[in-house]
Amino acid sequence: MFSHHHATMAPGQAPNKRARKTTAALFKGHTIDVARRLIGATLERRIPRGEPDAGTLVRGRIVETEAYLPLVDPSCHAYRGRTKRNAVMFGDPGRAYVYFIYGSHYCLNVTTERPGTGAAVLIRAVEPIAGVAAMRRRRLAGVPDHRLASGPGNLCRAFSIDRRCDGKDLRSGEMRIIAASKQRPIVKAAKRVGLSVAQDWPLRFYDAGSRSVSKTPAP
After folding, report:
1. 180 closest CA partner among 40, 20, 43
2. Could you give the domains of the chain?
3. Residue 193: what are its φ and ψ, rounded to 5°?
4. Separation of first and last alpha carbons in the chain
5. 21-78 tens-digit pLDDT
6. For residues 58 and 62, what is the distance between their CA atoms, to the nearest angstrom?
């Protein structure tokens, strides 16, 4: 059974002023704080027109993130400066930064820090809540429900996220992140995954109680 520690809001319902303010506050502050704060928040996406299950709202609780720090982090895409590919990282916090990697899959990141300072948080895993059938049609047969959006590439497949989503405002619209309720998960830190530089920095954060975490460190 999936946890439901998320803001209560009907599918497609526009957030009120207070909800917008709370959601905007998610993305403010230091990148590490944002990475921790996003654990337990809800990611939702309305499947776009022209795709199977168009109009369906897929939703899940964020259970794993990685922080990529400004200026000092050689594994951060903004480390060597602004490019056409990473331009959204230097804009407002709370935008989607989506890139294609290994010639095989997309990764969803949330921009952080002040405009002009390139940094982001990678969303590594989401625990499905709604639209599970639509997620399943985008994944391999036999994957259990709680693993449908585990791992950055699997998450993007399940939520139909690609470069068309790059730069989207995650505070509102067809893809957004909603602040968690007061009930917070137990958040633990670990080393980031799959890096060749700064791989020992403990900047991966995860919900210790979720089966949807992509990689749980050995005890």
Report:
1. 40
2. 17-207 (3.10.300.10)
3. -110, 140
4. 24
5. 667 789 999 999 999 999 999 999 999 999 999 999 999 999 999 999 999 999 999 9
6. 13
In three-state form (DSSP H/G/I as H, E/B as E, the rest C), the secondary structure along the chain is: CCCCCCCCCCCCCCCCHHHHHHHHHHCCCCHHHHHHHCCCCEEEEECCCCCCCCCCEEEEEEEEEEEECCCCCCCCCCCCCCCCCCHHHHCCCCEEEEEEECCCEEEEEEECCCCCCCCEEEEEEEEEEECHHHHHCCCCCCCCHHHCCECHHHHHHHCCCCHHHCCCECCCCCEEEECCCCCCCCEEEECCCCCCCCCCCCCEEEECCCCCCCCCCCC
* Locus of tokens 């985008």: 138
CA–CA distance, 35 with 55 (Å, rounded to integer): 29
Pairwise CA distance, residues 150 & 211, whole Å:
9
Strands 57-68 and 120-130, by their bridges, are antiparallel
On whether the pTM is more than 0.85, the answer is yes
